[in-house]
From TrEMBL, chain A:
<feature type="binding site">
    <location>
        <begin position="12"/>
        <end position="17"/>
    </location>
    <ligand>
        <name>FAD</name>
    </ligand>
</feature>
<dbReference type="InterPro" id="IPR015939">
    <property type="entry name" value="Fum_Rdtase/Succ_DH_flav-like_C"/>
</dbReference>
<dbReference type="GO" id="GO:0022900">
    <property type="term" value="P:electron transport chain"/>
</dbReference>
<keyword id="KW-0560">Oxidoreductase</keyword>
<keyword id="KW-0249">Electron transport</keyword>
<dbReference type="GO" id="GO:0009061">
    <property type="term" value="P:anaerobic respiration"/>
</dbReference>
<protein>
    <recommendedName>
        <fullName>succinate dehydrogenase</fullName>
        <ecNumber>1.3.5.1</ecNumber>
    </recommendedName>
</protein>
<keyword id="KW-0813">Transport</keyword>
<feature type="binding site">
    <location>
        <position position="233"/>
    </location>
    <ligand>
        <name>substrate</name>
    </ligand>
</feature>
TrEMBL record, chain B:
<dbReference type="InterPro" id="IPR017900">
    <property type="entry name" value="4Fe4S_Fe_S_CS"/>
</dbReference>
<keyword id="KW-0816">Tricarboxylic acid cycle</keyword>
<dbReference type="InterPro" id="IPR004489">
    <property type="entry name" value="Succ_DH/fum_Rdtase_Fe-S"/>
</dbReference>
<comment type="similarity">
    <text>Belongs to the succinate dehydrogenase/fumarate reductase iron-sulfur protein family.</text>
</comment>
<dbReference type="InterPro" id="IPR006058">
    <property type="entry name" value="2Fe2S_fd_BS"/>
</dbReference>
<dbReference type="InterPro" id="IPR036010">
    <property type="entry name" value="2Fe-2S_ferredoxin-like_sf"/>
</dbReference>
<dbReference type="InterPro" id="IPR050573">
    <property type="entry name" value="SDH/FRD_Iron-Sulfur"/>
</dbReference>
<dbReference type="InterPro" id="IPR009051">
    <property type="entry name" value="Helical_ferredxn"/>
</dbReference>
<feature type="domain" description="2Fe-2S ferredoxin-type">
    <location>
        <begin position="4"/>
        <end position="94"/>
    </location>
</feature>
Length: 600, 238
């Protein structure tokens, strides 16, 4: 088995991983950094983010306002010291990206332009047309090429973490183009492996978003935190789930039901704003959880249209000029044309909610450090405590930058001081993994990786969707346990070494099943409604601060249900209050009865 | 649902001496993409099929393949547009690693070679100002998704893999045209060399196949002008 030695391993070549690698290279140029990713960095899912990145920019705006929006947007489940740090660092990081060449959209005078975004009380979202994630990712990737200390291992899949006692001292990886295992020894490891959206059926996420890093940290005893909070983005294309950015609504798009009527005013987001005059935080600029929940109610009431068998509502951009659409939303025009054959200047786009973002993840402190010495986590795979029960659009791209930097600097600091690990123990662990891997191959009578994955994603969609019930969750949990048993019997039938997709998908499925069970188990335990986690069971439809103003933490138990504990939320300056997105008190009061989960 | 006939090039380096075409029948409707069809084959017919993909929305650049001889993104090419056999092969001009997976090492080396990052002396903390007009000069060229289709379309890259190729030259222009950049002098040696812009014979097929309508051929042509100016200036320098 090949053995490589480095100082810091970054797993994942998306925005968080690249930012961390650059930060480490700048903080400690003498250290070796290995950036390992199962895909070429520019394929990472950061590439698909469209709308923008938030930072306080206008003179009329303030860190306190961004803090308030984020904490209330997260239904008070965010750790407030983390949010305070984030909003203060945000602007500096976006400027840093500008210095590295990011083609931010500009105003006539040459200053950076900002746009409206859901749940934000003022314009503070920087954007690069409607390909912000793409430009951030490519800017970071191209900039990373300047640093000779950063060595890439493209298309290497992390099979396991290497441990010396409690300490994480490297990664065991599978070289996808040869099928060989490689032992990479390091002093610190940063996980930046992205979310787990692909454990659901309908989602905006790319095929690579399978929760690998979450599952590995979890199996090694690190808690997964707040996993019950999965974000459904309100505007995905029917069937494929392809993302239609919130920036459409920032630019003034409205949502219509099958009768051509606006409906968000019926769900505590009113009053209805005139066409072409979007108001921050109201109506279509409410937060994602509320909008996805409103869709669910429209569907229940029979007011959704049909697109190829999918219930849909309509995103209407027709009142915006074609020139404006081409300047601000060119990618949306391209996507709508290619995937639903619609010209948004002439016809409303059929859309429906789709799983988009994993709010929870690997529990870390404000320094991105996990409970295992030497192990850091950052970005969507991590739960640093920023998003609470519902992430605001445009906070996550900034998160990659702010905390990517923190993770890189912290991991570099740790690596500079840490003594080398005992490599003999690592060889034993690596040989065991090689033997484990060799035993995965065989024949199947009926099951297949694709079938099991299909069953998992449907179970999650049914049991852990926008609204949840105790009964549905219990059924989902049983299904997942059954799937895990089937997985134990499952073999990889393709024995080839070079780019063995079945083996890769088999490993990803194993990770996904662990993460799925964590999501479902956390959702069962939280018998209240908060943010993106909404229960329909009687007595659970409202937020319950007395019982649940705390993070769920799940600990892995092999072949069993996870162990759960609760961790108090850190509240520094903003005590819990009602979450309101209505400028119209009458409408807000009326909506309390019809909208489960809204605090009276 | 209609049945479509796919002929997929297969090559397993552990067993095959040479590539072969294998026929699959795939059900599809008006929304089915070539990528959807390939994933259907992998999930339902043959788990050993090798391909790259991720985003399904023409932004990650993974799923480039030849469809009836033309470089295409699998996710943005639809079965509905084909009425007889659909032949799917790996991207031309790259070494095949397995089935539809090609070796992108050379491509990445070319991207790195042109120093694709801002080069300047600026060390302040304030934003650079950049007007929409200045942004527009390079904006189009910053939209490259690195899918490699233009390399498959480029006869020169087919003949000489050392040729920087359309995407790398476009990326060089993207930075050379950026009002915040002073790095042109550092990039010109690459663009001036025999494997730089002058390697292009202006076939222009790269621009035809670009799934993002970047017009790499225009970027290459601009680079030739820059290179000619660079040459003339160098003649008057001591």
């Amino acid at each position: 088995m090949q053995i490589l030695q480095t100082d810091i391993i970054v797993v994942g070549g998306g925005g968080a991983g690249l930012r961390a690698a650059i930060a480490a290279a700048e903080a400690a140029p003498q250290l070796g950094i290995t950036l390992l990713s199962k895909v070429y960095p520019m394929r990472s899912h950061t590439v698909a983010a469209e709308g923008g990145a938030a930072a306080v920019t206008l003179r009329s705006d303030s860190a306190a306002a961004h803090f308030h929006d984020t904490v209330s947007g997260g239904d008070w489940l965010a750790d407030q010291p983390v949010v305070e740090f984030f909003v203060k660092q945000a602007y500096r990081e976006l400027v840093q990206l500008e210095h590295w060449g990011c083609p931010w959209s500009r105003q006539q005078d040459g200053n950076v332009a900002v746009r409206r975004f859901g749940g934000m009380k003022t314009e503070r979202t920087w954007f690069a047309a409607d390909k912000t994630g793409f430009h951030i990712l490519h800017t970071l990737f191209q900039t990373s090429l300047k640093y000779p200390a950063i060595k890439r291992l493209d298309e290497y899949f992390m099979l396991d973490l290497l441990r010396a006692g409690d300490q994480v001292v490297g990664v065991l990886a599978l070289a996808l183009n040869s099928g060989e295992l490689v032992q990479i020894q390091a002093k610190s490891v940063i996980l930046a492996t992205g979310g787990a959206g692909r454990v659901f059926h309908y989602n905006t996420n790319g095929g690579i978003v399978t929760g690998d890093g979450m599952a590995l940290a979890y199996r090694h005893g690190v808690a997964l935190r707040d996993m019950e909070f999965m974000q459904y983005h309100p505007t995905g294309l029917p069937g494929s789930g392809i993302l239609i950015t919130e920036a459409c609504r920032g630019e003034g798009a409205v949502l219509l039901n099958k009768h051509g009527k606006r409906y968000l005013q019926d769900y505590g987001l009113g009053p209805e704003t005139p066409l072409g005059q979007p108001q921050n935080k109201q109506m279509e600029l409410g937060p994602r959880d509320k909008l996805s929940q409103a869709f669910w109610h429209e569907q229940q009431a029979g007011r959704c249209g049909d697109y190829n068998g999918h219930a849909v509502v309509y995103l209407d951009l027709r009142h915006l000029s074609r020139a404006h659409l081409q300047q601000r939303l060119p990618f949306i025009c391209e996507l709508a044309k290619a995937y639903v054959d619609i010209d948004p200047a002439q016809e409303a786009i059929p859309i429906r909610p789709a799983v988009h973002y994993t709010m929870g993840g690997i529990a870390t402190d404000i320094n991105c450090q996990t409970s295992l010495p030497g192990l850091y986590a950052v970005g969507e795979c991590a739960s640093v405590g920023l998003h609470g029960a519902n992430r605001l659009g445009s906070n996550s791209l900034t998160e990659l930058l702010v905390f990517g930097r923190v993770a890189g600097e912290q991991a570099a600091h740790y690596a500079s001081q840490c003594p080398p690990a005992d490599s003999k123990a690592l060889s034993v662990q690596s040989e065991m993994s090689q033997r484990w891997l060799n035993r995965r191959f065989g024949t199947n009578t009926t099951d297949s990786v694709a079938q099991l994955r299909h069953d998992m994603t449907l179970a999650m969609e049914q049991g852990c969707g926008i609204y949840r019930t105790g009964e549905g969750l219990a059924q989902c949990q049983q299904q997942l346990l059954g799937l895990q048993q089937r997985y134990q019997q499952l073999k990889v039938t393709d024995r080839s070494k070079v780019f063995n997709s079945e083996l890769l998908q088999y490993l990803e499925l194993g990770f996904g099943l662990d993460v799925a069970l964590a999501i479902c188990s956390a959702a069962m335990a939280r018998t209240e409604s908060r943010g993106a986690h909404q229960r329909l069971d009687s007595g659970m439809t409202a937020r319950n601060d007395a019982g649940f103003l705390c993070h769920s933490q799940l600990y892995y138990k092999a072949h069993n249900l996870p162990h759960l504990s609760w961790q108090a939320v850190q509240i520094s300056s903003l005590p819990p209050a009602q979450r309101s997105y209505s400028a119209d008190n009458v409408s807000a009061t009326n909506s309390v009865d019809s909208t489960p989960g809204t605090q009276p | 649902m209609t049945d479509y006939q796919l002929l997929i090039q297969r090559y397993d380096p552990e067993h095959d001496n040479e590539p072969r075409l294998q026929r699959f029948t795939v059900p599809g409707d008006h929304t089915t993409s070539v990528l959807d069809a390939l994933l259907y084959v992998q999930q339902k017919r043959d788990v050993t099929l090798g391909l790259r993909w991720s985003c399904r929305m023409a932004i990650c650049g993974s799923c480039g393949v030849m469809v009836n001889g033309i470089p295409k993104l699998g996710c943005k090419t639809f079965l509905r547009d084909y009425h007889s056999d659909i032949t799917i092969e790996p991207l031309a001009h790259f070494a095949v690693e397995k089935d539809l997976i090609v070796d992108m090492t050379q491509f990445l080396a070319h991207l790195s070679a042109i120093k694709p990052y801002l080069i300047n002396d600026y060390s302040g903390t304030a934003l650079h100002k950049q007007t929409p007009t200045q942004l527009a000069k390079y904006q189009q060229f910053s939209n490259c998704i690195n899918c490699g289709l233009c390399y498959s379309a480029c006869p020169q890259f087919g003949l000489n893999p050392e040729f920087l190729g359309p995407a790398a030259i476009t990326l060089a222009q993207r930075y050379n045209l950026d009002s915040r950049d002073n790095g042109k002098a550092a990039r010109m040696p690459q663009l001036n060399g025999k494997n730089g812009a002058w390697g292009c014979t202006f076939v222009g097929f790269c621009s035809d196949v670009c799934p993002k309508q970047l017009d790499p051929a225009a970027a290459v042509n601009q680079a030739k002008v820059e290179s000619a100016k660079d040459f003339i200036i160098s003649m008057f320098k001591p």
